[in-house]
Amino acid sequence: MAEIVVSVVLGWLIVFLAHLCNLLILKPRLLRAKLQRQGIKGPSPSVLFGNIAEMKRLQGRVHPTPTTSTNDFPEAIAHDWPSTLFPYLEQWKNEYGSIFSYSTGNIQRLNITDTEMVKEISLNTSLTLGKPAYLSKDFRPLLGRGILSSSGPIWAHQRKTIAPELYMEKVKGMVNLMVDTTTSMLRTWGRRIENEGGIAEITIDEDLRSLSADIISRACFGSDYSQGEEIFEKLETLQRFMSKGTVGVPGFRFLPTKNNRAIWKIEEEINSMILKVVKQRMEASDEKDLLQMILEGARSCKEDDEPSIKIARDRFMVDNCKNIYFAGQETTAITASWSLMLLAAHPDWQARARAEVLEICGDRLPDADMLRDMKTLNMVIHETLRLFPPAAFVTREALEDVKFKDITIPKGIIIQIPIPVLQRQRELWGTDAHKFNPERFARGVLGACKTPQAYMPFGVGSRVCVGQHLAMTELKVILSLILSKFCFSLSPAYHHSPAFRLVIAPEHGVILRLWAA
Ligand code: HEM
């Protein structure tokens, strides 16, 4: 008997070790060899951690974004922060060219800045490209198997459910709620300015984050928005915990167990809060908001014959609510922060954008038609998203062998397009690529860039951001209302330091001096 047990355990151990060996050594080596045979080079990886040690070494060697006093502006903003945050990408591009491979742990990446190949990838709409599987594993508590991290038929079904609710026509109907919520935040700012003798110094990031959470909560949860707000507060805490494990290397996470326990606890709380709202909805379903759409998507999911898209209704609801929050809240808030920072550093553009807002709105509050006419503000937001895109990478996993240009990318490779690098390339944007110049967007993206596909703050192809109309509308509402009520400059306490924390954010916040316009 003992002999049988020993042989079973031994057998199991051998299978386990073989699996580990394949996962950590053989598979990555095979993928690398397939790329090398096609002339693609890259740094040599170590067995367990790939190129992470080298990435950390290069990050440690570069000087951080220079400490800036406001006298140094606007030149300091032109600083090439992508080469400070991701110095290894620049170094390897110089060494190995515009398509090179490297690895984080056992994940094999193909970094692409070759514009022809980027163009081909952005035009690919097949299901052969999906979201990297590690996304749903590493960020499971935050994303689960929702629209952001899923692939194939499950993703297609979720997209079909969610996208129509965020089409431009629907978004137009949300302008009033955006105006109301923003006006209430600005009343608080106005009171602070009055109490502080006419000029107030405000760190705007937290306020903008709450504002964005309020707006998305109202858009998503309709009349249940106060419960939505509570859920979003918890999600923010969860996101903060999760971003602690990124160790500055995209796609590689390490979390101490203590953090993991805290994450599980918050995740449980959030899931049951979302399910409570869903349950109420199922009993009274006369609302027509995003939550209702997701609920209907979840119901049709159950009835559908296709077994691969049958995920439990509860999971469908919970994961997609979390995904919408994660995708839409911080990205929009951070873009508002960066836009205001850039307008504060460029008083000429601030005055021009304000003049336009006042000419269009007069003393009325903005509506959808007025927002559409705000061309200068549109240019300012596009230029902000070019210089400071919240998402650093477009990533895809090759789910089958797939050919772009003359290269066959083997199944299992993670394709990675570094958005900020591409959006600052001089060959595409001209010699002033590092400067804030909204004028370049006067004739749209086509007029701004030789290869318009290289402008991708909202991603590319069939996975392009589903909330981009909502985000642009929200940003225009927030910025136009602030411009119409206040003038602002950068506080001397502002320290310009973009940082990578799941998104590209101002590490020490944006501190503005505000006074009544
Ligand atoms: C300035 C604000 C925003 C930026 C910069 C942004 C950027 C992005 C990017 C880069 C992607 C990935 C695209 C790709 O992989 O090709 C994405 C996807 C997505 N975004 Fe946004 N986003 C913003 C706001 C929003 C908002 C407000 C919402 C929702 C209310 C939203 C919902 C989504 C969803 C659901 C996806 C996944 C789409 C899919 O995979 O099919 N985003 N976004």
Automatic annotation (TrEMBL):
Among PROSITE patterns, the record links this protein to: CYTOCHROME_P450
| Keyword annotations from UniProtKB, A to Z | Heme, Iron, Membrane, Metal-binding, Monooxygenase, Oxidoreductase, Transmembrane, Transmembrane helix
The name this protein goes by in its record: Cytochrome P450 714C2
Q: Does the keyword S-adenosyl-L-methionine apply?
A: no
Q: Which GO terms describe its molecular function?
A: heme binding; iron ion binding; monooxygenase activity; oxidoreductase activity, acting on paired donors, with incorporation or reduction of molecular oxygen
Cofactor(s) needed by this chain:
heme
Task: Say which family it is in.
Answer: Belongs to the cytochrome P450 family.
Annotated compartments:
Membrane
Entry superkingdom = Eukaryota
List ligand-binding residues for heme: 465
The UniProt entry, under InterPro entries, shows: Cyt_P450, Cyt_P450_CS, Cyt_P450_E_grp-I, Cyt_P450_sf, Cytochrome_P450_Monooxygen
Q: What SUPFAM superfamilies does this protein map onto? A: Cytochrome P450
Q: How does it sit in the membrane?
A: Single-pass membrane protein
- Please give an example of a GO cellular component term from this record: membrane
Q: Do the record's keywords include Chaperone? A: no
Q: Where are the transmembrane segments?
A: 6-26
Look up and give the organism this protein is from: Morella rubra (Chinese bayberry)
